[in-house]
Amino acid sequence: MTQRINEQLSGMCVGIAGAGGLGSNCAMALIRAGVGKLTLVDFDVVSESNLNRQFYFADQVGMKKVEALFDNLKRIRPYAALTIHPVRVTPQNIHLLFADCDVVVEALDAAEEKMWFIQEMFVQMPDTPLVAASGMAGYGALESLRVVRQGNLIICGDGATEVSEEFPPLAPRVGVVACMQADVVAELLLREE
Length: 193
Prior knowledge:
Layout: H1 2-10, E1 13-17, H2 21-33, E2 37-41, H3 65-76, E3 81-85, H4 94-98, E4 103-106, H5 111-124, E5 130-133, E6 146-150, E7 153-157, H6 171-191
Parallel strand pairs: 1-2, 1-4, 2-3, 4-5, 5-7
Antiparallel strand pairs: 6-7
Helix pairs in contact: 2-3, 2-6
């Protein structure tokens, strides 16, 4: 069974929009699970403030996130097929960036970005499952985290907790939601025969 799972995951492609706390940690979990192809999209660079929750290292500060993530993921699985795009995701380029993906992960920062991305995915790629996240800031209350399924849209998180001074994005909770996203992706990919 393990060989079948490895063979199936190694031939699948997952797109990840955003390479911050959610995207970088989700990508790491997917590569460790055996997903063979990732398309990584983010325009940002690694900053020192990212190191508390994102899959980057101090010597990568100043690098483009997708380039640093490429290096880190290749250290885990050298033969993985990684495609990186150091650009901002826009309504105009969604289909170009993610057309070959079996599943897409939404890992964007701002609520407004998340909303238009989800809406555009429904319009442009309605048959592609989308695994999004909402409500992962702060700490504790892990029992409030859940997976909500609405057709091809699956949302991980508590759906409520926004980033604030009182509830900053911290590695444990962000990492749990990123791994929830990766687990949902694996489930979707392994269902497809």
